[in-house]
Design brief:
about 150 residues; alpha+beta; Nucleotidyltransferase, domain 5; three-stranded antiparallel β-sheet; two-stranded parallel sheet
Length: about 150
């Protein structure tokens, strides 16, 4: 097994360029490639390697399945009234990982609940936090246990 060391910026570039949560076309997944520079962990020397979309999908799938397992765990503990709303309206996904190609489709398949990527997914969490901080007293009352 080849172990390749790359930096965060390179990993992000790979994810954006050819990363996908769901391979819809195996032939296309093998043809989508990216050439990256990194360090061979055995020799310690820099090298260039070509990776396919299929390889990237295989590498990220365990982490994606952990995220989905967390979502399923939350859904299992959700009160029935809220669960019915979620089933009707779906899950809105936010943050950088939600932008991974086809992650919403994979999440829908795995949970059985329609999933959609939020508008401006990278910033919506921080904006919501800002709104909560501007209305901190109301927020405290809404989450306090009765």
């Amino acid at each position: 097994m080849l172990i390749w060391l790359i930096g965060e910026r390179t990993a992000e570039e790979i994810k954006i360029e050819i990363g996908t949560a769901l391979l819809e076309n195996k032939t296309e997944a093998l043809s989508k490639k990216i050439e990256i520079r990194g360090r061979d962990s055995i020799t310690g020397l820099p090298r260039t390697i070509t990776l396919t979309q299929e390889q990237i999908n295989e590498a990220i799938m365990p982490v994606l399945l952990e995220i989905i397992a967390g979502v399923k765990g939350v859904l299992e503990k959700t009160p029935p009234e809220l669960a019915s709303d979620i089933i009707d309206k779906g899950i809105v996904m936010s943050g950088g990982t939600s932008l991974l190609n086809n992650f919403d489709k994979l999440m829908t398949r795995q949970t059985g609940v329609p999933c959609h990527v939020a508008e401006d997914a990278l910033l919506c969490v921080v904006r919501g936090t800002g709104v909560a901080l501007e209305n901190i007293e109301l927020y405290k009352r809404s989450i306090s246990k009765k």
